[in-house]
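Protein modeling request. Please complete all fields; requests missing the sequence field cannot be processed.
Requester role: graduate student
Desired output: 3D structure, token encoding
Chains: 1
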Amino acid sequence: MPEAAEPPAAARVHLPLGWRLLAALLLGLVSFGLLWGGASPLAVGLFKAPWDKLAHLSVFAVIGMAFGMCTDARGWRVVLWAVAAAVAVGAIDELHQLALPGRDAGWDDLAADALGGLLGAGLLNGLYRWLDERAVLAPARSWLHRWRQLVQRIERVPTEAATGDVLRRLSQPQRPTMLGFVNAHAMNSVAGAADFYEALVSADTLLRDGSGMATLFSLLGMPPGCNLNGTDFIPRLITQFSGRSMALLGTREPSLSRAASAVAQLAPASQLTLAHGFLPVDDYVHLMQAQPCALIVLGMGMPRQELVACSLRAQLDYPCLIVCGGAIIDFLGGKTARAPAWMRRLGLEWVYRLAQEPGRLFRRYVLGNPLFLARALRLRLAQRR
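Delivered output (385 residues):
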């Protein structure tokens, strides 16, 4: 079986100077205690064979491990240093024994000391490997890492002309393709949900949604591009798919049927497949396998719709665009009203929606928006280091 590759040098954990100084102090105390304690009459016959060799092994494992920590060496180098330190201290101890009345030295004790140093080096290398693995895994668990990855994955569309290009590209999928939208709520959600993050960041195309994301990009010194929120963008996509079969999967009646009527006006020649948003994931997969659709619009909310989209993309075998649309079906069905145009222009649609549904959206906006801004500032500071 091949050996596991060592972590890259950048991922290696180097012990802080304070830890190394403590290791040096421990090395000095143990060595002094060994020599001073060994001179005491009480030490004579304290451990009977073979337990005396186990005592040597244990004490010199500590010595080898402590010396290895002082050197900050790795691999075979720490083995060399630990064994050398154990043999050196062991030799001094054996010579000290020769100077004491009624004592003698033995090669078997020195061998046990060397084995102890080897054991200490093995334990230290194991500790280093565990720390290295934690250092490699920690970034993937960090919200900062997730935010950095999402920021890089979002397609920032600079102009209305470029938006038209994106619409045309998305309307001609060559395989099952996933489209997602990233807003402040999504960024807050990925900070604490690894499965949602993995689903969202895997989308084939991610678009910026909302004024909060514009603020984030501006803080990072990046042009935010057009605000391609799903509520405005998805109806334009539906028009692009006119004449091809479509599916609306999400919400519940009567909003679903009303949304279907709105879609029929946008794409009158398209055949529609409908399903509410509370079925098991496999049911959606089976439905879309039985009734292939070129455009599949999911209106289930985050993170469920992203997880469903990933399952559909993985199991469908025909070209289609799978859109994570949030509340789009409710908007199309008239259940949720749009904010006045002036509020949308000022980036205040969230205030309008909060006033409509305070119980459901209080946590998302009143608590979530300040948290998002705090994290955005934290990311900016991290980027400048």
